[in-house]
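Example 403.
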Amino acid sequence: MDDAIDEFQRSGVQLRFQSLLVVALLALPLILAGSSIGQESGESTKKMSLKDAAGDRFKMGVGVSEQVLADPQCAELIENQFQILTPENCMKPQGIHPAEETWNFEAPDRFVAFAKDHGLEVVGHCLVWAKDDRTDDWMMQLDNGQAVSRDVLLRRIENHVATVVSRYQESATMWDVVNEALADGEEGYLRDSVYTRTTGIDFIETAFRTARKHDPDALLIYNDYNCHFPDKRKKLIRLLSELKDRGVPVDAYGMQGHFELGDDSLTQLVETFQALRDLGIKVVVSELDIDVVKRGRWWADDGKYRDELKTYDPYKDGLPDEIRQQQIKQYEALFRLFDEYQDTIARVSFWNLHDGQSWLNYFPWNRTNYPLLFDRQFQPKPAYDAVINVLRETETDHASSGE
Ligand code: G3I
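Predicted structure in complex with G3I:
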């Protein structure tokens, strides 16, 4: 009897043990799945950086001022997220070379040293900014105040480009050689400036040839805005074709990418990327952001809305969710497109690090803007998660289709 009770008790214990084992085995996949779902949605998204998510499709970069680099929080974010840095202002002709014999190397030296110390590449920005209001008098005039001659201007450009490129060629892997030389919209071919009035497109040739001479391996870029719109695109393709016909070493078009919310530019971007691909010219997205307080009206009807706009600051207390969602969708669509053209696109750089630092809080009037992927507290926004997800999904699609 006792034996029977013992046997009964043993089998009961065994049964309970077996049941527990079965339950545990059944639950194991769920426990494991649970922990990896946690990682997928939370931790891994937090840990996955833009540069890791983009992988070897294109480099991820950001344009910042040299002051930003002195802030440890900014420095950490930059180092974690990006591979390549553009100096927002300090390497521009008016910053680095304010008079013929005067050079301000201190700030750009500091910028490039930061990049070097943090294992980052540099985009030299920009060697020639082809606008009169971005050009100092010493460059456009002779000592007696007369307009500069073609030969003197080309020699000055050559000297400027040679000096800057040879100083920073070790860290700079890409150069914005000429910035904004094309006229806007339906206006003529080249923007009216001392450069085009005096030399036509020859100054562009001189700048690119000199840059190539002093940095044979760098990607040499022609940088401009709004060239995905058909009128300006025609001029871009004409310019790049003319330069190629002359044997000028231009490697890429820098699409600044200062978009506005809902500007529906996808079809035009596809046509532009296609045309550049056909021409054998790479694309870099050089200054990406999406303005949520549209600025086009500032220039409309000869500026008659400016007084009204100067006090227009609709999102000073925060961004409505509807606007946030629109911006997320726009970023998603852009990154899907960038993925599709990964054979053509060499880099995607944001213009400024976080919303609070964006130039769009001040240009063309003061307003509270939210154009980037990080918020004013350095935190990734939902748009950041959306971009990471697009980059991960598209990478998985390529992997599963064997691309
Ligand atoms: O640092 C001075 C400050 O001392 C002074 O008190 C203040 C008064 O206006 O000006 C400050 O300098 C400003 C500088 O930004 C730094 O904030 C300049 O006035 C202002 O003109 C300058 O604007 C820059 C602009 O290019 C012109 O160089 C923007 O930061 C910069 O984001 C913007 O970047 C350009 C790209 O280079 C080319 N593509 C378009 C893009 C946006 O305009």
